[in-house]
Design a protein that fits this description.
By secondary structure, this protein is α+β, with helices and mostly antiparallel strands. It folds into 2 domains: 5-347, 3-Layer(aba) Sandwich (Beta-lactamase), CATH 3.40.710; 351-382, no CATH class. The protein is built from 13 helices and 13 strands. It has helices at 5-23, 67-80, 90-93, 108-112, 135-140, 164-177, 181-190, 204-209, 229-232, 238-247, 262-268, 326-343, 349-368; strands at residues 27-34, 38-48, 53-54, 61-62, 126-127, 224-225, 235-236, 283-286, 292-300, 303-310, 315-321, 372-375, 379-382. It has a 7-stranded antiparallel β-sheet, with helices on both faces. A hairpin with a 2-residue loop joins strand 9 and strand 10 (303-310). The N and C termini lie far apart (47 Å). Mean pLDDT is 89; it is low at 375-379.
């Protein structure tokens, strides 16, 4: 199908600035990938609103949970080195004190695809001014506001998204390699994939280029970092994440420097089952026309991210935002991208507005059923206005 990248980008240029203003979102960086290699970039909004510093190619973002598929590459690389089997259990690698309350029969495969049955979906992050906790402290729940990781169901029984599983993967990797997770990932994955501006460590170079984050009304937020690096700790740029996507294209063997074989890449992109979208580090969906899309989203405090790609076609998109509510504009852009990928046409502004209005009508319909008075931290009343 002959798609015009120019028409899609023109649609973004006409729609995104207004969405940023309406949502009070500080910024959005876009990397559109076509034909395995070609990238087109768009930078909307600011890296720092007070200083009027715009987003640009060198702006660093937190990838949030989009760290997980990058981590999965690091784990599969160990598999290719024949240092692990993905069906080995955590009890083979870790001391029992590290997984109290956790089923010892959980396999690496189940940690990667979220069928481990573990609790704790995500972690809140830590202020840069506070003492950095250890992974053992995080897993055991010895930190205020962080529950312990425990088994809620038997391994392999059901899908349950968990960040705690990736903490265990981080510990397993460090146990096997006898080096820090960050160093291993930098040498074995980030540098070979030309992700030279990316890091799992918050360091001086990252701090110089890191965007400022903003909350839901557009006010600046404090910076948080994550010791749960495998789950949420990657710092990256929109260009570097584009290189990661290109490395996931099946035909791009040279681009990924043979880090992972095509067979193992296909394994990583394989959907768990008809009703389960998880895979080894990613999620997978199929359109009505049968097109397979591999994707992952991420949300840290002040950061929202998304990658989607079609591995057999060489097409993909990266979306990074330095706003706590950036997911709203990311979802809107994905509507436009999916439409463009399906039939090669770009929605004009009027058609896009109609889709948005239909969405809002459905939201309002559900809200009407919730009219009443609520007591949370504040008194809240939902009413219908004429």
């Amino acid at each position: 199908m002959n798609r015009s990248a120019r028409s899609f980008l023109e649609t973004l240029d006409s729609v995104v600035p207004g969405l940023l203003e309406n949502y009070r979102i500080s910024g959005l960086a876009v990397n559109l990938i076509e034909q395995n290699q070609v990238s087109e970039y768009r930078y909307y909004g600011y890296a720092n609103k007070a200083s009027k510093i715009p987003l640009c190619a060198s702006t660093v973002f937190q990838a949030a949970s989009v760290s997980k598929p990058v981590t999965a590459w690091g784990i599969i690389k160990l598999f290719e080195y024949e240092k692990i089997s993905i069906d080995q259990t955590i009890s083979y690698f870790l001391k029992k004190k590290l997984y109290k309350g956790i089923n010892p029969d959980i396999s690496i495969r189940q940690l990667l695809n979220h069928t481990s049955g573990l609790s704790v979906q995500s972690y809140p992050g830590y202020r840069l001014s506070t003492n950095t906790p250890t992974l053992e402290q995080v897993l055991s729940g010895r930190l205020k506001g962080v529950p312990p990781a425990i088994s809620l169901s038997a391994p392999g029984e059901s899908f349950l998204y968990t960040g705690a599983g990736y903490l265990l993967l981080q510990l397993i990797l460090e146990t096997i390699t006898q080096e820090s997770f960050s160093n291993y990932m930098h040498r074995e994955i980030l540098l070979p994939l030309n992700m030279e501006r990316s890091s799992f460590e918050y360091d001086f170079e990252v701090s110089l280029k890191l965007a400022r984050t903003y909350n839901f009304v557009g006010f600046p937020m404090p910076a948080y970092h994550y010791v749960e690096r495998a789950a949420a700790g990657l710092y990256t740029t929109v260009s570097d994440m584009g290189n990661f996507i290109k490395s996931n294209f099946i035909d791009n063997t040279d681009f990924r420097n043979n880090i992972i074989s095509s067979d193992n890449l296909n394994l990583m992109h394989q959907q768990l089952g008809r009703n389960l979208s998880g895979s080894l580090g990613f999620f997978v969906s199929k359109s009505k026309k049968g097109r397979k899309t591999v994707f992952h989203s991420g949300y840290n405090r002040g950061w929202c991210s998304h990658i989607s790609f079609i591995p057999n076609e060489g097409s993909g998109i990266v979306l990074l935002s330095n706003s706590d509510i950036g997911k709203f504009i990311i979802k809107d852009v994905l509507v436009l991208w999916k439409q463009w990928m399906e039939d090669g046409t770009s929605l004009n502004l009027d058609a896009f507005v109609k889709i948005k209005m239909k969405h809002y009508a459905n939201v309002c319909k559900h809200l009407l059923a919730t009219r009443g008075r609520y007591y949370t931290h504040y008194l809240m009343r939902l009413i219908k206005e004429k």
